[in-house]
Amino acid sequence: MQTPSTWLEISIEVEPEAVETVAEILARYGYNGGVVVEQGWIAGDEGPEFQYDPTRPVWLRTYLPFDDQVEETRQRIEHALWHVSQIRPLGPLQTRTLAEEDWANAWKQFYSVLRIGERTVIVPSWLEYQPQPDDIVLWLDPGMAFGTGLHPTTRLCLQLLERMVQPDQHVLDLGTGSGILAIAAAKLGAGHVLALDNDPIAVRVAQENVERNQVNAVVQVAEGSLGVGQAMGHWLSGDFGPAEPDPALRAQTPQAIFDLIAANLIAKVLVTLAPDLAAALKPGGYLISSGIIDIKEREVIAAFAKVGLTMVERHGEGEWVALVHRR
Ligand SMILES: C[S@@+](CC[C@H](N)C(=O)[O-])C[C@H]1O[C@@H](n2cnc3c(N)ncnc32)[C@H](O)[C@@H]1O
User: Fold this and answer.
1) Are residues 216 and 210 in contact, defined by beta-carbon separation less than 8 angstroms?
2) Is 264 flagged in the annotation as binding?
3) Which of 184, 222, 225, 321 could tie 292 with a disulfide, CB 3.0–4.6 Å?
4) Are 14 and 62 in contact (CB under 8 A)?
5) Residue 154, annotated ligand binder?
6) Amino acid 51: pLDDT
7) Domain 149-326: CATH architecture, name and number where available
């Protein structure tokens, strides 16, 4: 794809609590789903060291190619942020036009090689990297990656996949986003990975990343969901499908075909999809669920217990929880 020559930078200052929501909105509209997060830093006690100050406001930026749709997209972002501003204070939306060189610098300085777990290394596609013998290298443009690190919910899943993927397994990545977990599963030796997302933009980005990582033979990316997930709208729209799930959709869930499912969704979606997730797993298969905010953890655990899944592991990072269940 040719890189556009002029860019519109969209920036907004937000409170730390709003970072995630606003970043999701910017990722939806920004080029390649990328968002730069500039956190508030304070000088540390150790001379020139700097520390992140979790109480300071955060700047979020995304970039739009300056084309015929740029104004329409800017208005959509403004509209989505207006909804958020009804609940949380947000700074005014700021825009400026950037030439290609300035954009490349503004954007790329925030990304570097990122090592996760024991062997997984995420390398922005414009950087050179000489892999170590055991490295599992994922070549990814920012996409769902936030700031200088990955989102904790993704990091937790990658650490679990590293330990859990076995050769030739049949894996489902439900809510694939950038495709990161599906690509990791393929490089860790899975035999077949189905990567589903109900957001067409995510599907396009995931497919591009699958091709960049040359795992097309193993990963199948498709637009859609599992069982009653098919009746849900975009995850940021609050459309979780009808209150009474349609039994006809549940009946469409593939039965007992996956050895491993990774589902980095949100608690409410995991709870609704619990019967479909359990049905799709082979007996003895494992479910990695993530995207669970700690106050919702009990609800998710109860929903999984109800469909016969046994909890075998729990991992937390900050307020985020990832669970491993066995059918
Ligand atoms: C938090 S992101 C996770 C992305 C990626 N798997 C990762 O770990 O970084 C959640 C993704 O799930 C998708 N999603 C949300 N609800 C869904 C549903 N009902 N069915 C399929 N995909 C869904 C969203 O579009 C989004 O791309």
Assistant:
1) yes
2) yes
3) 321
4) no
5) yes
6) 46
7) 3-Layer(aba) Sandwich (3.40)
CA–CA distance, 308 with 266 (Å, rounded to integer) = 20
Closest residue to atom 13 of ligand 1, CA basis: 175
Burial class (CB in 10 A: 0-12, 13-18, 19+), 209: buried
Cα 264 to ligand 1 centroid, rounded to whole Å: 6
Q: What is the CA(207)–ligand 1 centre distance, in A?
A: 14
Query: Which one-letter amino acid corresponds to residue 5?
Result: S
- 6-108 has which CATH code? 3.30.70.120
Domain definitions of the chain by residue range: 6-108, 149-326
Does 97 carry a binding-site annotation? no
152 in contact with ligand 1, CB cutoff 6 A: no
- Closest ligand 1 atom to residue 157 Cα is 8
pLDDT band at 65 (very low <50, low <70, confident <90, very high): confident
Interval 283-298: pLDDT, tens: 999 999 999 989 999 9
Q: Is 135 exposed, middle or buried (0-12, 13-18, 19+ CB in 10 A)?
A: middle
- CA angle 168/173/177 to nearest 5° reads 135
For 230-284, the pLDDT digits (tens) are 999 877 667 788 888 899 999 999 999 999 999 999 899 999 999 999 999 999 9
- Ligand 1 contacts CB of residue 269 (under 6 A): yes
